[in-house]
Amino acid sequence: MSASPALSDLSRLYQTEFVRSARAVGVLWAVCTLCFAIIQVVILVQPSWVGTEASLHQGRGPEPPSGTLGLFEVSPHVEMSKCPLPECRGGLSTLSPLPSFQSVAVLVGLSLWAVWTSVLCLVLFRFCSAATVYKICAWLQLTAGFCLALACLLFPDSWESPEMRALCGDQVTSFSPGRCSVHWAYILAVLGVLDAAILATLAFVLANRQDALLPPDTKDGENSSVSPKPSPKLL
């Protein structure tokens, strides 16, 4: 017994709405990927991974150093006599990170490369199947999240360094920042790991649903190539 025309039209309507919703989710995923790539640049260049806590100086003795520290430079509010300029500061212009945070900077750089490569892969939607592009971007975003997670774990382990001791005091040890505290750039890096995991998961979901997003005419065309068997006549 064949389906009624009303049910066929309703099925096509649901299929059209499903395609539109999937395309809207794909556009939202692409926009979030671009935003994540921009956030990665901010994470890498901002000297606000750790910084001194706000405190009032009582006027007894020299004022303790205060400021913020990133992967490439120390931004002191008061000149730090314990940390000579050539040995303790890198430079963003020459892409030379601080000596104690070189491995962290390399990991963040690899994460930055992976996520920007996924952004460039969006151009492949015009040349390759959507499922393939989604899977490529998903693996790149997983790589970016993995490298960023390693950087977030290695950064506190590198706190026992001349740069941190000059800014945060001699009581600094690994995973103990002394007078300092983590600032917004490090928190943004931690959130970036979660963002990469969500984007990669969404990309895998979109890739696996591409077969369901085929236009109805394509499926009808495939089925029409096979001639239907004649139904037996009822006596």
UniProtKB/TrEMBL annotation:
<keyword id="KW-0472">Membrane</keyword>
<feature type="transmembrane region" description="Helical">
    <location>
        <begin position="137"/>
        <end position="156"/>
    </location>
</feature>
<feature type="transmembrane region" description="Helical">
    <location>
        <begin position="21"/>
        <end position="45"/>
    </location>
</feature>
<feature type="transmembrane region" description="Helical">
    <location>
        <begin position="104"/>
        <end position="125"/>
    </location>
</feature>
<dbReference type="Pfam" id="PF10242">
    <property type="entry name" value="L_HMGIC_fpl"/>
</dbReference>
<feature type="compositionally biased region" description="Low complexity">
    <location>
        <begin position="224"/>
        <end position="235"/>
    </location>
</feature>
<dbReference type="GO" id="GO:0005886">
    <property type="term" value="C:plasma membrane"/>
</dbReference>
<keyword id="KW-1133">Transmembrane helix</keyword>
<protein>
    <submittedName>
        <fullName>Uncharacterized protein</fullName>
    </submittedName>
</protein>
<dbReference type="InterPro" id="IPR019372">
    <property type="entry name" value="LHFPL"/>
</dbReference>
<dbReference type="GO" id="GO:0007605">
    <property type="term" value="P:sensory perception of sound"/>
</dbReference>
<feature type="transmembrane region" description="Helical">
    <location>
        <begin position="184"/>
        <end position="207"/>
    </location>
</feature>
<feature type="region of interest" description="Disordered">
    <location>
        <begin position="216"/>
        <end position="235"/>
    </location>
</feature>
<keyword id="KW-0812">Transmembrane</keyword>
